[in-house]
Amino acid sequence: MSTMIEATEWWEQRAGCAKALMMETFRQGMGRPAGMERRLAAAIGDLLARPGSLVRAVTAYLVGIEMGVTEIRSRSLACGIEYLHTASLVFDDLPAMDDARQRRGMPALHLLHGEGIAMLAALAMINRGYSLLWQGMGGASGARREMAGEMIDRCLGTLGMIGGQAHDLGHWRDGQSAAEVSEVAARKTGDLLRLTLVLPALLGRGDAREIRLLDRLALLRGLAYQAADDLKDVLGGAGKTAGRDAELGRPNLVMAEGFGAARTRLFRLLEVGDRVQSALPGTPERWGMLAPMRVPVPACITDHRQTAAS
Question: What is the number of domains present in the chain?
Fold first, then answer.
């Protein structure tokens, strides 16, 4: 038990150092604003000033290091993934999408700088994100670079994150099934987590079994994250306004299969994910960087369960 606690503390310290490093990389990775149009520079500056949790960047960076990717290439991969994630949030918040008012404790970017400039800032981050991914791929073999390129296209393109967002905007008020909702979540959330876990392994020394298990784990963690988010949307709390998905006509597991079934699904996804993670080669301590990928069960779900039982 003491060894496990020591390993957990060691990983927490290492993750803290990695987060500080990725924070600096995130803020500096867009280059100097000299010569940039002032409104665009201001919008990009606001995005870089509030990087969020950086959980994808930190995890991708540490997986890359574990897989033998050089430090600078691991950092490029991690920052590129984080820029693509940040850009996707800007688009998510637009009136034509989720019409969000806040992001990371501040007004949404389009409310501060206008929709046009917000979209251009997001496109600038996407452009830079792809450039950083390409830099991170440089040390791999030609065959692995080709596989990585195909994976990036699949995860981010019309069959991945972009396609998932298109499905998210569908006519869900006409009815939805849990399978349909899960398919959207796999594309919107799961595919970016696949890049986070699988891309560094693919570009490093990850073998076929490690890559397969990391790919499976990323999907399960992504589905669990979305299931928890759907439950929070219905219950409110944890920084969310209740009923937003119903108001916008968005897919939601609770609306598809009921609260009890959705909660059971969340716990099942977490359990299966834990089993997949434990099957990864080596000791559990080797994969300590994966802990932040496991979404914590929101307090509002636990509170609701206790209230229903009393």
Answer: 2
